[in-house]
Amino acid sequence: MIIGDQIKHLRTAHHLTQQEFATKIYISYQSVSNWENHRSYPSTEIMLLIIDTFDLPLNYFIAKDIDATTDHEETLILSSFLKCMATSRDEAPNLKTIQQLSCVSAERVQHHFPSYDDLVYTLINKVDQDIKIRVEKRLSDHEGVLSIFINDMAPLLYHKKETLHILYTRPYIKGVWMHFINTKYQSLLIKYNPDIKKNDLDTAYLIEILTTFISIWLSQPEIEPLEQFQKRITYLVNHNIASWHA
Asked: Which domain of life is it from (predicted)?
């Protein structure tokens, strides 16, 4: 079974329309249609998101046959998209600029990413993937949320500070990134702490506080060193905010 057929089978097995399936994985329904009609493949990051969202085995798409050129093109396009954002604070990159910088034809760019949203969410998933994996592992070990935030998540964020600074300071992508992070990490907290769901408002406040800490930190023109940020958050929590427990 090729990848388009696998996705269609998965979608219909969950009784989802193409739009509903697309919404669950933060992608456009046009992409789902293209995959199912064998006009394009999802990126590696999107496949990992599908696997994670539907609790599939890691080798679910292992039979997928995509040549090295396809992966290379996707990497070039995403890298060019990021470079365009680095040079333009207020204006979102357009297809022509990305195509020129990546040296990938406009047709191939659209083949990989049928819409601007697809490009945005693939980049976001790529940036977040290893962070999410680490945080989920710590949550599954029943570590406290604040400890995970300071000792596990913050170092991973700092390692990607240049890219994250762009996501937090470009108005045309910041809102999408913040919504993505809030939704994903609220879902993770509920998954590993079912009791949290009994008080959705508390969870919403907790996520909002933590993401605000990150947003302020990574939005600064000069991002403060990791250890300084960790000390700052520890001090603020111990002196100004009641203790949180996972």
From this structure: Bacteria
